[in-house]
Amino acid sequence: MKKLLYSACALAFIACGSSKDASKENDANVDQAKKYAETITAKDLGKHLFTYASDEFEGRNTGEPGQKKAVEYLKNFYISQGIASPLGGNDYFQEVPSEYLSNNRRGMKLKDSENVVAFIKGSEKPDEIVVISAHLDHEGIKDGKIYNGADDDGSGTVAILEIAEAFKKATDAGKGPKRSILFLHVTGEEKGLLGSKYYTENPIFPLANTVTDLNIDMVGRIDDRHKENPNYVYLIGADKLSTELHNLSEAVNKKYMNIDLDYKYNDENDPNRFYYRSDHYNFAKHNIPIIFYFNGTHADYHQPTDTPDKINYDLLENRSRLVFYTAWEIANRDARLVVDKPVAEKK
């Protein structure tokens, strides 16, 4: 009996110790996540966006000179941060041929364009890929007016830059993600989600190895519905393929940010059909769980008045950090996300 009691006590002691160790490990992970998330700042986001959505970039129309300046800006940022290209060397462009673009856009002849790709290799599960995406293009110049696209989607583009920098700082300190992160800036979204379509048809990494796509498209403004409660973001698609992704997203927000997560546009019967209208959908079609982060439309949507001075940079900071935290949790959890729902076909 004494031996049994001794064994029971020993096991209880070990279990208690293991529980304390696990708790310490979790606390350390939270502290690390916060440390690097705090490098994502309103000031740095604004610095990027006042350049990226300036007249110099001529509205970033697919294949046009302003869009070429935009992709060079993104490439030079990644080089300056020492964030590698998955294509090797200084080649950060996945070329998207004019023939492909034009064939998918009937009646419109489009010029060669490119997706911009950068990559941080995972420390333990490098073959599993977390994609963070945003579209780099906008409407260009119409009737002599420049459509700067500061919110659409300059906001998502610069959010990725800051998120990438945060992950790189973590990696340099030996705290990098266990899974690999692909930072994917896609072209031709305004022409029909063409850059993301091209990527999913010509993936750099097998789609079977792609764990999720966190897509950021318009996260710098406030819509009419939230004028009294500006600390919000619309989430679309988180529960469409993976219950686990939805639950993780909710838990991450509660743990770190406490942003009001609005699911209005996640309703299958919503007439706006936003789930089908941004680049994440090309991943979802391939059974890859996604989250679409979105602030809703506003009076400057697809207008020349969508300029960087109208962005709420504190909100952009909060939403960018939320995406970072979510990516951090997905990239560092033990098991990859479980897909437990069928693909939602476009109706």
TrEMBL record:
Residues 115-325 form the Peptidase M28 domain. One of its GO terms (biological process) is proteolysis. GO terms for molecular function: metalloexopeptidase activity. Pfam families: Peptidase_M28. This is Peptidase M28-like protein. It comes from Tenacibaculum adriaticum. The lineage of its organism: Bacteria, Pseudomonadati, Bacteroidota, Flavobacteriia, Flavobacteriales.
